[in-house]
Amino acid sequence: LDDSEVAFIRRMQSGAKLFDTRRGVEVDLPKLLQPGQSLYDADIVCVGEIHTSEADHAVQRLLIDALTYSLFLELRTSEGIDPAAPRGRTPQNFSPQKLAVGVEYFNFQQQAILDELVFDKSPDGPGSSPSRFRKACDWDQVWSYNWELYAPLFRFCQLNLN
């Protein structure tokens, strides 16, 4: 994917460390994504944040991309496909392992707008621009936290559609 934001995040992942509470030590993020390690073997990974913390949101984005990219590389390698190939199966559409993003700030009445963000590619739909999605989901009234902190999460969802 030729995307400057994604390229930056992938570079950051290589040096990221997380604190493993079971072992009481810091561990490199790439190591945690290897078979037999906690993030790789986890059925569910919950990542929270302080709503106003830019650093917390950056770590969230780093982790969800790392989890998805790790699955992508494993799937491509197992099928003998070059990970850089522009087409082919991705974890989000063919792998038995998938990553889902859940958030608490939308209600079930807004599900259609979330679906449109990811799946609707019409030129005037909520998925056509961040400002249209922000308006369609009534962000400023429903959640009202800094949109710029949350926008990369929604962009991730668009880039990694099922």
Which descriptors would you attach to this protein?
5% strand, single chain, two-stranded antiparallel ribbon, 162 residues, mainly alpha
Give the fraction of residues assigned to helices.
40-55%
Largest β sheet strand count, sense and barrel closure? 2 strands, antiparallel
- The pLDDT mean sits at 81
DSSP, total strands:
2
| Secondary structural class | mainly alpha
* Low-pLDDT sequence parts: none
> What percentage of amino acids are in beta strands?
under 5%
Give the end-to-end Cα distance, rounded to a whole number of Å. 16 Å
Number of helices: 8
Question: What strand line-up does the widest sheet have?
Answer: 1-2
Order of helices and strands: HEEHHHHHHH
Form type = globular
- Compute the gyration radius: what is it? 17 Å
